[in-house]
Amino acid sequence: MLVGTVMRKIKSRTWKKQRYFKLQEDCMTIWYKSKKAGNTHSTFSVSDVEAIREGHQSEVLLSIADEFPADRCFTLVFRGRRGNLDLVAESTEEAQSWIKGMKKLIENLENMGESEKRDQWIGDWFKKADKNNDGRMNFKEVRDLLKMMNVDMNEHHAHRLFTMADKSQSGTLEDDEFVLFYKMLTQREDVLRVFQAYSSDGQKLSQSNLEDFLREEQLEGDDTQQHAKQLIECYEPSDTAKLLNAMTFDGFLMYLGSAEGSIFNPQRRGVFQDMSQPLCHYFISSSHNTYLMEDQLRGQSSVEGYIRALNRGCRCVEVDCWDGASGEPIVYHGHTLTSKILFKDVVNAVGNYAFKVSEYPVILSIENHCNVEQQRVMAQHLSNILGDKLLKSTLDGKAPIGLPSPEDLKGKILVKAKKIGGLEDAFNGMVEDSLTGEVSDEDEAAEMDEDNLHRESKSKQRLSKELSDCVVYCKSVHFSSFKHSRIHSKFYEVASFTESKARKHLREAGAEFVHHNSRQLTRVYPTGFRTDSSNFNPQEMWNAGCQIVALNFQTAGEGMDLNDGLFSQNSRCGYVLKPDFMREAEKRFDPETPQQRDHYQPVVLTIQVISGQQLPKVNIKEGSIVDPLVRVEIHGVPMDQAKQETRYIENNGFNPVWYDTLRFTIHTPELALVRFVVEDYDKTSKNDFVGQYTLPLSCMQQGYRHIHLLSRDGTSIPPSSLFVHIRVTELE
């Protein structure tokens, strides 16, 4: 890789061009250029690459599979919403050395400690700023670099630091001198204040100083002695301090910047919830129009949409099926100009990616617009491609009495669609042997008309027995009323609502809705008027206990931030257990009146926003620096919805300091999500988004914590962070 390799970059069946790829000396940057285009070249960092897929594992490479053998093909998948890079090497050996090499480099990155990451980051900046590539930086280059890093520093102060760091007095900074300059620049006064408050001698924290800090500030009740020992062992860089069982300021800063010092409680990272309750007792990460990569009118349909959603922990994907040419069903957004993909390619992708990040079940939500013949083809593809993964009968082969649990259904793919008759019929020998049956025809398109004109005549749809038999625990039905459901509905029936219908039911009968959802599954999806694929706020629907709240995963913004926030716990497995008062049928919880429930205990959340670190530059304009403010939003039951902001700090995205305190009263803490948003204040127009982080209140650690910010599309932007102090107390 260091020597460099010529490979073909493929964009389509017709666009295949040779490019020269080379790994730079830093083993972190990949540089490539076209063979003829003069000296223009492109680079990307290994840290931008999320995964490597071998063989024909993307639509582009599948389309040229007949031309290039799989063992020479591979795909680099980037983080966020950046497109894949599809490559074909000249030989199998060359392909293998790039595939293995990239995997190794990514693995090394993932195993990097905090301090290595920081040095890595500093090195990247150094390379960017060293315009003439002489391995040293003069004062002008340093000044330009500070602008790039979002630092507005007066010339005098910058020059003083420059001279102090220039140990060799050469008028330039070389590698380690630049690291020293950076460390002086990023001196954390805010953390030093905390350190000195707990240090007996102002130089170090003895083990007992550290125990006091863990007990009094971080509110760690359990074995603080043991924990203090571990922290010193893990984060203290100085061996001398380790021998004294003490922690220096550097070690303290390392601890506070690590995963343990972050706001998210590490004990809630893995699977910690009971996974053996019925499916309807969980919120389920769900996607809408999964096949779309952009908007709903002209967007690109793509198998990639399924792979990305499943790799984000999504457990319910949507498949819109229509009759295709030569007897092969296709998937696209009907009656629009979105492109079309084959149903069998979607099923293949789901089979391959369903259980890569979570072993819990995946639900295929099928919108079926196909004729009976093509429905048979769909059933064949499901059976042939998915094999044992497809759930074709009840788990124990007996007539069931309730929904199985995520634990029971590990590794299984469930089909949610129309079904002829009921689940019991199969056990009473009731199903006739006819090959088709009739079901009423409702779908999202019809729902759209219904919101406008009440269509009285319900059309009938023919359903093939084979496809009907693929439906076990998720039979799609039309919803009439909560009363009707209470008396007639079966636990395996799933009703779907547009967001507007769901809101109407919520307002008119919140407690009824919660009760309904303690017994069966409900799916809510965005109204068809959102042709830009925007999202509604899913929190409203979770407040009513709706499990399958389908969002456009392809659209970044508040809706997806909340979804990522809720599902960031429990190993990101896509299932989160609902609070007990929403699971027990006899408890009448109404999200509108949370104070009426048993064991009602509101809390007060106090957040001191102390400082920000190295916020990303949002405005590309030359010389513009961020004026950051922090907004904290509470998303929960209606009484808990709230937002408060800090002041904005002028011209400092590098190390702004606020010390502003925000207070919230929260009536249903079990349902609350907390979203931290950093914006660039602009008095004349809308503030620019800088970064955000969302998490469940129940997963928050108290005390002094760092919040590692995410970009608009949910990827991390190290080393951007906020430093805060958190307290949660019961309201007296």
Q: What does this entry look like structurally?
A:
- By secondary structure, the chain is α+β, with helices and mostly antiparallel strands.
- It is built from 20 helices and 32 strands.
- Strand 22, helix 19 and strand 23 (548-551) form a beta-alpha-beta unit.
- The termini are far apart.
Put the structure in a nutshell.
With 732 residues, the protein is an alpha+beta fold. It contains 20 helices and 32 strands.
Protein topology:
Elements: E1 5-10, E2 16-23, E3 29-34, E4 42-45, E5 49-54, H1 59-63, E6 73-78, E7 85-88, H2 92-110, H3 114-129, E8 136-138, H4 139-148, H5 155-165, E9 172-174, H6 175-185, H7 189-198, E10 204-206, H8 207-216, H9 224-235, H10 239-243, E11 246-248, H11 249-257, E12 282-287, H12 303-311, E13 316-322, E14 330-331, E15 341-342, H13 343-353, E16 362-368, H14 372-386, E17 413-417, E18 436-440, H15 444-452, E19 460-464, H16 465-469, E20 471-477, H17 482-488, E21 493-498, H18 499-517, E22 522-525, H19 539-543, E23 548-551, H20 558-566, E24 575-577, E25 603-613, E26 628-635, E27 642-645, E28 657-666, E29 673-680, E30 688-696, E31 703-710, E32 716-730
Parallel strand pairs: 12-23, 13-16, 16-17, 17-20, 20-21, 21-22, 22-23
Antiparallel strand pairs: 1-2, 1-7, 2-3, 3-4, 5-6, 6-7, 8-9, 10-11, 12-24, 13-14, 14-15, 18-19, 25-28, 25-32, 26-27, 26-29, 29-30, 31-32
